[in-house]
Design goal:
Helix content is 52%, strand content 15%. The protein is α+β, with helices and mostly antiparallel strands. A three-stranded antiparallel β-sheet has the order 1-3-2.
């Protein structure tokens, strides 16, 4: 098995959630999305983002508007829709649940301590409970 492929699949699995989260903060230009995702090491290739943005747009989770640029062609700025906000909230709940589940499985389990009768606390009369 190739660990790099598994790592890529794990990143792809949370990419939609992260993109929606970034867009939910306010209007964002594609290059700013790419920069943040690259810094977070979630994408390496820009070509990954454009199909995702198109799917989110087709699902009415995000919308965009064109803004004229002084130094080139117009730019597309993305924002989240009301439906996208609801969808993102559901993904946030799912994410929290997944993190919790993964932590339950991956964190070392504490050994249960057994107490024998000699270590039990004595009550006020000096008798063992």
């Amino acid at each position: 098995m190739n660990v790099a492929n598994t790592q890529i699949q794990m990143r792809k699995g949370i990419l939609e959630y992260c993109v929606l989260h970034i867009i939910s903060r306010g209007e964002v230009y594609t290059s700013d999305l790419i920069e943040e995702l690259t810094q977070a090491e979630l994408i390496v290739v820009e070509g990954t983002l454009y199909p995702l943005l198109n799917r989110l747009k087709s699902a009415s989770l995000v919308e965009y508007r064109w803004v004229e640029s002084e130094s080139g062609p117009p730019r597309k700025y993305y924002s989240i829709t009301a439906q996208g906000s609801v969808f993102l909230h559901t993904l946030e709940e799912t994410w929290k649940s997944l993190v919790n589940s993964a932590q339950l499985i991956t964190q070392p389990k504490l050994e249960k301590k057994t107490t024998d009768s000699s270590s039990q606390e004595k009550n006020t009369t000096g008798e063992k409970e």
